[in-house]
């Protein structure tokens, strides 16, 4: 998929029906359809096939333009064309926005938002963390079933992402801020090799 292998040559880009505008930008040109919905449907076939989140009519403004990282879809220089642009920068950044949108779409398609208040999401996260812990119960740390660990860890991540979305937290920002705070509490010269809490160093 394009998301897994960003083309490094024009030949590679042509395999996806587009071309490289430069080393960072893949573009694909679409002729205008009779309706804008048809236009979006055609683009979504390509995006979903290649690992991206689909677009919706609600994403667009009155001029039918959308500007989303890593995807831009809007009018081309020619009046009868639309241009899909995918930026390579996306691959060097955490894909938290993409993951959150997939979780939200899954939830909303099942009308579960009514159950997802912050309290119950936090409780659900705690329960899933307990199920993750259970995979290690009565075992040596290296004997846990990796598939079960992966599945339970994914549930923990999912609820954490949903809580962050509920409060409109930027996941990258809050994690990096916490790392910085921990770095101040646990300076390398005092904490290296020690399991002591910061107030015991």
Summarize the structure.
The protein has 201 residues and is of the alpha+beta class. It is built from seven helices and five strands, in the order αββαβββααααα.
What attributes characterize this protein structure?
Helix Hairpins; 7 helices; 45% helix; 201 residues; 12% strand; 5 strands; elongated; alpha+beta
Architecture blueprint of SSEs:
Layout: H1 10-14, E1 19-22, E2 25-31, H2 36-49, E3 66-67, E4 71-75, E5 81-87, H3 96-109, H4 118-134, H5 146-166, H6 171-185, H7 188-191
Helix pairs in contact: 3-5, 4-5
Provide an overview of this structure.
The protein has 7 helices and 5 strands, in the order αββαβββααααα. It has helices spanning 10-14, 36-49, 96-109, 118-134, 146-166, 171-185, 188-191; strands at residues 19-22, 25-31, 66-67, 71-75, 81-87. Strand 1 and strand 2 form a beta hairpin. The model has no long low-confidence stretch (mean pLDDT 86).
Q: Can you name the CATH architecture of the largest domain?
A: Orthogonal Bundle
Report the structural category.
Answer: alpha+beta
β-strand percent reads: 5-15%
Element pattern in H and E: HEEHEEEHHHHH
Low-confidence stretches: none
């Amino acid at each position: 998929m394009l998301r897994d292998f960003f083309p490094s040559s024009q030949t590679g880009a042509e395999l996806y029906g587009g071309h490289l505008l430069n080393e960072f930008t893949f573009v694909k040109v679409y002729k205008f359809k009779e309706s804008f919905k048809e236009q979006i449907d055609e683009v979504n076939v390509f995006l979903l096939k290649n690992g991206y989140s689909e677009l919706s009519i609600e994403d667009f403004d009155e001029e039918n333009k959308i500007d989303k990282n890593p995807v831009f879809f809007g009018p081309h220089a020619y009046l009868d064309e639309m241009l899909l642009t995918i930026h390579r920068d996306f691959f060097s950044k955490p894909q938290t926005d993409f993951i959150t949108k997939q979780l939200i779409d899954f939830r909303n398609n099942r009308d579960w938002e009514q159950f997802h208040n912050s309290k119950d999401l936090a409780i659900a996260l705690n329960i899933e963390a307990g199920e993750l812990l259970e995979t290690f119960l009565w075992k040596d740390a290296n004997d846990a079933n990796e598939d079960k660990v992966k599945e339970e860890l994914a549930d923990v991540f999912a609820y954490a992402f949903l809580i962050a979305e509920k409060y409109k937290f930027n996941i990258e920002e809050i994690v990096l801020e916490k790392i910085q705070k921990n770095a101040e509490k646990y300076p390398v010269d005092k904490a290296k090799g020690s399991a002591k809490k910061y107030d015991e160093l």
